[in-house]
Specification:
It is a single chain. The chain is of the alpha/beta class and about 190 residues long. Helix content is about 30%, strand content about 20%. The chain is built from 7 helices and 8 strands, in the order αβαβαβαβαβαβαββ. The strands form 2 sheets. It has a 6-stranded parallel β-sheet with strand order 5-4-3-6-7-8, sandwiched between helices. The longest helix has 11 residues. The chain is elongated, with a radius of gyration of 19 Å. The termini are far apart.
């Protein structure tokens, strides 16, 4: 790997990434030469679809209940599905949740039943557009327990004027001002989540 890295660094003028932590990690673990990293922040458009949000919200969180959402493109357990539902099980019954995107599967669905969450968690599955979901939720939850660069879902939720509760790892703290635009918790800390 070191030989490949040395050749790569000589061939590249710069390496761009959306988080400072990526450049720091490449320098520390892969020998990225000083001055070759360039921070290029992601940009996102404000999500449309707010016209459908009231109907969606009424279906997902009836009677004006609080609605938290998890949006993911991966079914990997590293996305924090387990801490998310364990925390939800400890929350008041008035808190409902929606998971948009794939989930870990039948075992996860059984876990929802074991935790008594079948009526409080809606599994929406994969969607080509999630704009309406951002407008329907009160808060995005990003409970990842492994590396993240700067998850676009945080930026998309912010563009819909929604705060995030997210794990303090990798580039996530570069996207959330703790206590202002969201809340950061330690990865896997169910009680804090």
């Amino acid at each position: 790997q070191a030989a490949v890295d040395a050749v790569s660094w000589r061939a590249l003028h710069e390496v761009s990434a959306p988080a400072e932590i990526v450049g720091e990690a490449l320098a520390a673990t892969r020998g990225l030469p000083e001055g070759r990293f360039r921070l290029v922040r992601y940009g996102v458009a404000a999500p449309g679809g707010d016209g459908d949000a009231a109907e969606l919200r009424a279906r997902l969180a009836p009677e004006g209940r609080l609605l938290v959402g998890m949006v993911t493109a991966s079914r990997s357990r590293e996305k924090g599905f387990d801490p998310f539902v364990e925390a939800l099980a400890q929350a008041r019954e008035q808190v409902h949740a929606v998971i948009v995107g794939p989930h870990p599967g039948e075992q996860f669905e059984r876990r929802l039943g074991e935790l008594g969450l079948n009526g409080r968690v809606t599994l929406e599955g994969s969607r080509t557009r999630v704009d309406s979901h951002y407008h329907a939720i009160d808060c995005l939850v990003l409970p990842s327990i492994a590396r993240e660069a700067v998850p676009l879902v945080i930026l998309e939720a912010a563009a819909a004027s929604r705060p995030s509760i997210a794990s303090r790892l990798s580039g996530v703290p570069e996207a959330i001002v703790d206590g202002e635009t969201g809340v950061l918790v330690e990865p896997g800390d169910v009680a804090a989540l």
